[in-house]
User: Fold this.
Amino acid sequence: MIPDKVPEQDVILGSGDLKKDAHIPTFEKYKELYVNSVENPEEFWGTLAKDFFWKTKHTGQFFNYNFDVTKGEIFIKFMEGASTNICYNLLDRNVYEKNLADKIAFFWEGNEPGDDLTVTYKELLQRVCQFANVLKSQGVQKGDRVSIYMPMVVELVVAMLACVRIGAVHSIVFAGFSAESLCERILDSQCSLLITADGFYRGDKLINLKLLADEALQKCIDKGVPVKKCIMLKHLSKVPEETAGCNSPPPKRSCPDLQVPWNPDVDLCWHTLISGASDECEPEWCDSEDPLFILYTSGSTGKPKGVLHTVSGYMLYAATTFKLVFDYQPDDVYWCTADIGWITGHSYITYGPLANGATSVLFEGLPTYPDVSRMWEIVDKYSVTKFYTAPTAIRLLMKFGSDPVQKYNRKSLKVLGTVGEPINPEAWQWYYNVVGEKRCPIVDTFWQTETGGHVLTPLPAATPLKPGSATFPFFGVVPAILNESGEELTGPSEGYLVFKQPWPGVMRTVYGNHQRFETTYFKKFPGYYVTGDGCRRDEDGYYWITGRIDDMLNVSGHLLSTAEVESALVEHKAVAEAAVVGRPHPVKGESLYCFVTLNDGMTFNQKLESELKKKVRDKIGAIATPDFIQNAPGLPKTRSGKIMRRLLRKIACNEKDLGDVSTLADSSVIDQLYQNRCCSAV
Assistant:
C-alpha cells in the first residue's frame, strides 16, 4: 500500500532544520511505524496510551469491531474496561504532573485588534472546575446532554471541558447556525440545558446570539419539549458589578446597549453563577466507550446526523494526530483558525493541543477584518510556529496579492496546514511560496467529523509533498479505492474512498439512530467504512481527494446537504419543487445554484428571490445562503421521475456537452433552463 520509495522529482521536501528534532524525521521511519500500526494495532496504540492517565486499565480485546453489515450489527470498541477522564488528562496532569501550571494554554485574540487576554493551564483548570460545579448545581449529571451555542471565546472551551469533567455530553452548535438549526439539534440530542452568550461581532456585524437562542428555545416549547435552563455569558453587554473581578474583562468592542431578552424563569447569568462556585471539582471517571460529545453534520437526507464520539479512542487519536501531523514541540505556538463549532475546532483547538500541553491562539475574528493583513499580524504578534487554516481563507486572501502578507515577517512559521476541503494546486503554491516563503511544508489534511482526526495526511518532516495531494494514510488507517461494483482497485486508479479497519478516533454511531449509522457508512460496500468521497491514487501511490460522491456540497469547507436546502426552499408557498447543485466558486470552492419550479399563478422576480434566500438563511444559517436562484418551469427528469442533477450541474456551469440524455423524459426543458440561467452566473 505504501510505496517502497517516493519520487525524487516534482515533490517538495521538508527542511533539514525541521528533520533534526522531528518526531517522524524520514519517510522510512514513517513506513516502519505505519506497518506496525496496521499489523500490530494493540502494540502501537497501547504504547501511546501509556502517556495518559487511566483510572482502571483495559480488559479483554484492545480492538473489537465489525465493519460488515452482512455479519450483524456494526460496532467499534476500543480499550474496553479502561476508565479515565479527558479533562483530567488535559488539565490536571499538565498542571500537577508536567509542571505546566504557568504555561499559557491560550492567547485569546478578539474581533478587534488589541482585544486580547491570556489564560494559563492553572487558570483554565480553575475556571473549568468552577463551571463544572455550576453545571452540577443545575442538576446536570453524567450522561446528560448539554447544548452549547457560543462565539469563539475562552468560555466556550471552559463550558465544553466542564461538561467532560462531570461526564456530561456536550453538543456544540456553530454560532453561525440559525435558530431553527439550533432547535433541531437540541431536540435530536435531548439536551436539558443550553449555554450561550449575549452576542458577538463578526467583523462590523453585530450578532444578537441570545435573541437567536431564545427563538430556538421557543421553537422547542412549540414542539412540546421545553429546555429547563439557559446560562448566558455576558460577552458584549456590561458585566454586573458584583462579578466585575471575574477575570473576564469585557472586549474593547463592547456593546453595553445590546438589547438582550431575559426570561427569569429560564435564564441564568454565567458571571453570577461562577462568583460563588468552588474552583475544585473531582473528575467523573468514564468508561472508554462512554459518550464524549455529539456533533452534527449534514446528511444527504436533509436531516443532520448527530455524530457520536466516545472517550478513550477519541482522546488518544486527537492527541496523537496533533502531535505528529504538526510535529508539535514544547516551544511551539500553534494557531488553528477554525471555529470550535466544527470538528476541526474540537480536535485541533481544544482536545489535541491541550492533551499535548500546547500553547494555542484562539481567534474570534475574521481573516479580513479590519484589513486583509489581520492573520499575518497575529502570526507576528504571538510568534506562531504552526498555522492551520482552510483553503477558502487562502483563496480569499490570494485575491489581495502578496503585499498584505509581506507587511509582516512571519519568520516564526515552521509548518503550514490546510483543512476542510481539497486545496487546489494554485492556492497551495501561493500558500507555500508567499506565506511560508518556500521553507514551511504544508500538511494538506483529509478527514471528516466522523473520523475524529486526520486519516490521510503528510507528516511535515517525513513526507515528500505534491501540491494538492493528501499524500498517505495516518497510522492505523487502511484506505482502499473501490469501483461501483465494490471491487478494490490497485495501482493508479479512481473511485470510492473507503477504509478497511477502524482506528481509535472513528465515530461509534449516529446518536439515537444506529440504523442510520449502518446505512450511511457501511451498507453500500459491506466490510468497509464508506467516506462518501471520491479519490484518485496516482502512479506514485499518492492519494488525491476528488470531492463528494453523494448529494453533499462543500461550501467554504462546510458540508451542506442539497436535500436540506431544497427542503427549505419548498417551504415557501410560491415553490412547488426545487433542486440544488454545486457550481465551482473561485473562493468558496463550491457555491449553491438553486433551480425552483413555482406553483401556478406565482411570478419569479427579485422580491421572491430575496425571500427564498432569506428562507434558507433563516432555516439553516448564513453559510447556506444560495448564490444563485433560477426560475425553472420544468426540471430534467428521467421517465421514472428522478431529477437528473448531472444535467443541472452542466446548466449551472453553462456547459453545453450534456453527454447521454437518452433517459430524459422531456428534452424541451433543457433549452428553457439554458435561456433562464442567472445573468450573474457567467
About this structure: The first strand starts at residue 63 and ends at 66. Residues 241-248 have pLDDT under 50 and may be disordered. The radius of gyration is 25 Å. The chain has 20 helices and 31 strands.
